[in-house]
Amino acid sequence: MAVADKTGRIQILSPDGKPILEWLLPRYDHGTPTGVIFDTTRSSETTLLVADTHYSRILRYSLDGKLIQQFGEYGETPDKMVYPTDIALDPKGAMYITDYGICDRVMKFTREGVLLKQWGGFGTERGQFQRPLGIVWAPPGRLIVADTCNHRIQVFSEEGELLDVWGGVGDGPGQFKYPYDLCVDGDGMVYVCEYGANRIQRLDPQGKPAGMYGVAGRGPGEFAAPWGIAIGPGGLLVVADTDNHRLQLIDSKSAFERSARPQSASQGR
Which domains does the chain possess? Predict the structure, then answer.
């Protein structure tokens, strides 16, 4: 596991949460990163990509903490970035980066950091964004984006064609309050981390609600402003429970089994 926190450091943890390595980013006085992802698209080398949000750049590290690549700079022109927030990778290693601040968009780069295309724009219309924070690649070639301040999820092709829009603001199943991050399991189920609702929501591959987990609080299974989510082997969800200053590990199969069952009329809702 890799974790970025507000002290400006990256931590590598074992699957059971034990620290393996940590290092500080080059700068962090203006703010800290919001997205990290392991790049396993080259069989000869696994690296770690960091969306260094407040420095308008992407950093690539070796797993011993050595900075080996950097691209991006602040600017309002289409070839520059403002606040990059998250990174998704397709199987060929192309990078898809969410960015907000002026353009509110998705940017597609080669592995070497060359801009290929971009789409979106600030707004509330379909295909536009307000502060997109999370992005994940899902087979057979979809990009699923947490359109945070529009309280919805948008689905695109790898070339930026809008395929679907899920949700809208609310507390009910299939609705969202500030979806910050998402991940996809091997069956195509989508897990959405809701910062504003203090819960995790599960959706099927078509975006239909398939269970909810968590409430606001400090105990196990409770959240305070959850910011990030990832899934590991065996369906284990890792949630960055930000304002509780901890990670929570959740068995995705057992946690959502009860909430996904249809209720009888006598039970109500």
Answer: 2-260 (2.120.10.30)
